[in-house]
Amino acid sequence: MTVHTVTDHEGCIHALRQPDLRQSLYDAAALMMEHVLVNLHGEAHRQRRTVESSVFRKDVFLAYEKSILPRTLDETLAPYEAAGGGDLVDIGYRIMMNLTVDFAGIDRPLRTAEETGELLALLKDFSLAPALGQSLEADVEPRKQRIRDAMARFDERFLKPSLSRRRALLADHAAGRIAREALPSDVLMALVMGQDRLQMTEPQLVQEGIFYMLAGAHTTIHSLTHAVHEILEWAAANPGDAAELRANPFFVQRCVYESVRLHPSSPVAKRRALAELTLADGAVVAAGDEVVVDLRTANRSEALFGPAPDRFDPHRPIAKGPLPYGLSMGHGMHACLGRNLAIGVEPKPGADPALHQYGVVPLIVAALLKRGITRDPADTPTKDETITRITWSRYPVRFRPETALL
Ligand code: HEM
After folding, report:
1. How many Å lie between the centroid of ligand 1 and the Cα of residue 400?
2. C or N: which end of the chain has fewer Cβ atoms within 10 Å?
3. What's the 216 CA to ligand 1 centre distance in angstroms?
4. For 188-203, how does the pLDDT look when each residue is reduced to its tens digit (9 = 90+)?
């Protein structure tokens, strides 16, 4: 098997659009991801994506941003503010877990701190799976066993009850006892309603529920930590420019785009050829070959993103064509379904700041900047060194409202 690597922006887009290239990034994580949306191909993928897309609506995102997120932020940040600081990765998990389980359709009947803690612990175990293929450890079996145990616990404690409740609600609706509007608007409900078409087994539903917790929370938390880090370093080096954070209501979102460009959640996408095909540069790929789509390198093209493309510069002019965050939200059939929820929509000239959809990452970053987030001078952040993707595993911060950038 030959491995072909594509590094230029156009070539990556071309590869991600090829119907004969199927997902292969998660092959090593099959125990948890074999049957999830991002690993499906062809008609099975199209049908599942169509059913799930019904939950990813602009009105649902806007309502979340404007009414639920501000309360979640106040509640989650209050204890950290009172303590004067904390670990940003931990803060991110606590904020995003609520959002992501609500979208996935995982009920939390008790709504206690213990229940939240249990889900957080599960989420941390699940987050070991997508990176299994990038692990630098010699023996990954202990990681795999932790994942299997967490899957079984998640099924018993959370998925089964959430599924039963939705099936009962659908039966009530079919019998005319409740209106359509009374059904929850989440992925699990959409799957229960689409079951005639999709014919999913229970183990497949467990995998999909877990995938949504990961797709929603894990990527977002790491984007959040990278963005805060980049903004704090940049503001310290460019104190004059940092005034724009206050002056321009859309500037935090611009900074997040720039950070997302530099730090895609996975540096590469991977695909395997189902049949012979030709890449944009003319290279012929045989059936069974692997294609590595190097998003990180494509996002750092000097021709598209200007001089010093490795540098975080939210003022950089960007050529017409690429998105300001590059290919970090994917492209083609697997393009991120949660993009607008995570990073909002690009503001059009004359956009109304009060009605604009900013995305949860920019809104969380803004909330942290307003509270005067700074790096903890007494405690150094650490990166996860066990995988090839770069993520912060701990990022100690302090809150100093008197020096807030926003
Ligand atoms: C900043 C945060 C996020 C980043 C960087 C991100 C990035 C990505 C990327 C690169 C892909 C494509 C993977 C591939 O081609 O192999 C993807 C797919 C996906 N993302 Fe996101 N994502 C983010 C947030 C979210 C959120 C908040 C949700 C949902 C609540 C979500 C749901 C999904 C789903 C369902 C897919 C699979 C789509 C499919 O296979 O058809 N993502 N994401």
Report:
1. 33
2. N
3. 7
4. 999 999 999 999 999 9
